[in-house]
Design brief:
By secondary structure, the chain is mostly helical. The chain has helices at about 1-25, 40-65, 70-100, 110-125, 135-150, 150-160, 185-220, 230-235. It is globular and about 60 Å long.
Amino acid sequence: MKRLESSLGIGAIVATAATLVLGLAVAPPDAVQGQAQRLMYMHVPAAWTAYLAFGVVLLASIAYLVKRDIRWDRRARAAAEIGAGMTALTIALGSIWGRPIWGVWWTWDPRLITTTVLLLIFIGYLGVRGLSLDAHLNARRAAAVGIIGFVNVPIVHFSVVWWRALHQPPTVLRPGGPAAIDPVMLTALMVGLVAFTLGSAWVYLRRVQILSLADAQLVSLADPVVVPQVTVQARRAS
């Protein structure tokens, strides 16, 4: 596990450095959006990582409900925390990108609305974990929210296809194949996807370990401390 973590960490650092060089210095500015388009190299990878994290939540939640093993719940929780953070980052970067292009920080665009709903769902997912002292009851509630909440992921992704508004359609994962894009831009975007994926995987493994240690500490604190008592007769016998 340590070797895997080290490999993921080193890979994330290298890919992040490559993304910065490609995205800021090598790739040309967009012909229409200019320099603001460079935010794409972080905005899109953040959204992709959120999708991936919520997919892990879905699978781990199903596994918990089937096996009733709290380890799967820890994996789902760690992924949900990453997914919620990446969704918040996606919205923030999109707002910064949209300000010079659309002229506003926020608009009631279907993609923005559905993404915000997705964030709220998984904030709620994390919130239901504090409703009970029973870890398995919290896990069951969270699993239900996580499974139902994942339904919104494809809605977010295809919202720009189903309801055309200000937000541009997907660049890579779109019906009919990827859009025409400068090869250097595409390379910078793909390397950014790798950087975010590796970095999030490293954080995920570390977070699962922290949650495991925290659970083990709670169990040890809950166990009564047995103090051997020596009777007077035993002392005399010795």
